[in-house]
Amino acid sequence: MRVVIPTLLAMVAFASNSLLCRLALRQTTIDAASFTLIRLLSGAIALWLIVITRKARRTTAGNWTSALALFAYAAAFSFAYVSLSAGTGALLLFGMVQATMIFGGLRKGERLNARQWFGLAIALGGLVALVFPGLSAPPIGGALLMTGAGVAWGIYSLRGKGAGDPTSVTAGNFWRSVVFAAVLSMALLRWTNLDLAGIRYAIASGAIASGVGYLIWYSALPGLKATTAATVQLSVPVLAAVGGILFLGESITLRLLLASLLILGGIGLVIVQRPSG
Asked: How many angstroms separate the CA atoms of 22 and 193, rounded?
């Protein structure tokens, strides 16, 4: 239970990011750039407080390249949710994160067996089916933005492997990403629109769902096998879709359901290892 409970809480936190962002951009007047800036700033503050509370030696870990990838993810994520539903956005994001990390592994010389290649083909086919033009297809602009967000987060995750203490590194990258978010907000100052409820959602997304969520996830990771850690993340799009139905009144289309089965099932074939012997 010392591993199961933190793992479940972390997955709920990750899914909550989609719900909080969609709530803010659908039910308040806050703009996407401001939401991104406040989310990253509040996440940076929360992570910095966690780092100094733990008395970590380094509080300025991380680097500008990873921070740029983090910012690209957060910005594209926010602008995508202007038009996407919570479940569709989470599915696109998760699918592209995993696909990016899989292709990153292939570039480093990792090899897939026939079953894994089949799973990868199914997952990619599911992504194509989800965004293929039709009455129930998500808006192409939002879908492309969330696809970019997934690629950026996948790159960020790949760069973070073995980068040192994950909390300190994430805190440093969050602080650096605030610079990029501030530049974006200044560039779009003409369209800035702040809303108290939207600000609250952004703070909750950054400080709790991101900052505290990452801390909980990192505390659970040592007790999980790598394949288990990857597999359990299959629950995030499902949780986001359920949350969208319960809290946002969103509906699940047949296209989304079938695409979910293809994407999540295909990725499961890739990342779940058969027991040896």
From this structure: 16
Q: 276 lies in a domain?
A: no
In the chain, the amino acid numbered 7 is T
* 91 touches 259 (CB < 8 A): yes
Token digits for 274? 């058969």
The total of structural domains in the chain comes to 1
CA distance 211 to 206: 6
How many whole angstroms separate alpha carbon 155 and alpha carbon 66?
Answer: 8
**Triad 262, 264, 269: Cα angle to 5°:** 90
Predicted TM-score (pTM) of the model is 0.86
| CB distance 232 to 10 below 8 Å | no
Number of helices followed by number of strands (H, E) in the chain: 12, 0
Interacting residues of 32 by C-beta distance below 8 A, sequence separation 6+: 25, 75, 78, 79, 81, 82
SS3 at position 111: coil
Whether residue 277 lies inside any domain: the answer is no
d(CA 259, CA 253) in angstroms, rounded, equals 10
Range(s) of the domain holding residue 79: 4-271
Query: Does residue 110 belong to any structural domain of this protein?
Result: yes
Residue 266 lies in a domain: yes
Classify 70 as helix, strand or coil.
Answer: helix
pLDDT (tens, 9 = 90+) of the chain, 277 residues, equals: 677 788 889 889 989 999 999 999 999 999 999 999 999 999 999 999 988 887 655 555 889 999 999 999 999 999 999 999 888 898 889 888 888 877 887 787 878 788 888 888 888 888 778 776 665 678 899 999 999 999 998 898 888 766 667 888 889 999 999 999 999 999 999 999 999 999 999 999 999 999 888 888 877 777 766 656 666 777 788 888 888 888 888 887 888 888 888 888 887 887 776 655 4
